[in-house]
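INTERNAL AUDIT FORM
Audit reference: QA-55
Scope: verify that the stored structure record matches its stored sequence.
Auditor: D.O.
Record contents follow.
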Amino acid sequence: AQKLSSLLKDNNGDSSGFGFGTYSINGMKGGGGHGLALVNTGGKVVQFISSGGSFRAKDGAAKGMTSINIGDSKSNTNSGYSFQLVGNGRKAGHFRWSGPIYATAGAINTGQMFTYAFINEIHYQNVKPGQRFVEIAVRSNTVLRGWSIVLYNGSSGLSYHSEVLSTFSNTDGFGFLVVQMKQIKKDGSYGVALVDSSSNVIQFLSYNGRFKAKNGLANGMVSYNIGGFESAATNSGYSFQLIGTGLFVGDFNWSTPIKTTAGAVNRGQSFKKSAITVRNSHSYSYDEK
């Protein structure tokens, strides 16, 4: 096991919030039948990968887990090449392993793009349906082609409308896409799911109570209740908004209805580059036997 200790900053150059720490792992073996586990500060295995085939760990933090095979390692592979995650997404499961290809240690991989978007503002209580909307905050290098918003009925748990988003893209910091949602219901418990182009549910929010989805891509998921409610007395120029400071949706909190900022940064919201501390985390090297 090797302890990691470093401060990873957003060194991607595009405000994506991702940094890259390169570590020399003592005792790591080449060839097939070997694995590597990444363990967080709480002792939870974040990843357990292997080359040359999958196997089941018999001890350590990954005991009982089966590794994910990232590919076959060749003894004659050039030292300047490596296995890398490629594709578009925001977390490991959105990418696929490729290689060996030319190494990019300390930088974004070849063929990799970090994408990130989240629901940033909602207004559902309005006599005129055309004034109801959902706003999406879109980080740089994220293209919403193929993304969608799915509306759910909290009473039945079933979806009742799906809206495919426009090909909105953003190349500098954060941009904001306002989607007019005249179909969104205003009385009772309802939900809104944000789905990416690979059918991953990015968010599943609800208002006036939480519930469990019973169909669609959010099937089996329990919604996150944004709290509070909009009543008939709520001014049409007010909305629920994420407020606080950060880059990721978890950095912010939902406000009670405040004056709307559709298409712009919310009131009391500030986007900043992130710094992630990797302290007392470990990597474990495994042999198949």
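Auditor finding: record pair retrieved intact. The mean pLDDT is 82.
Action required: none
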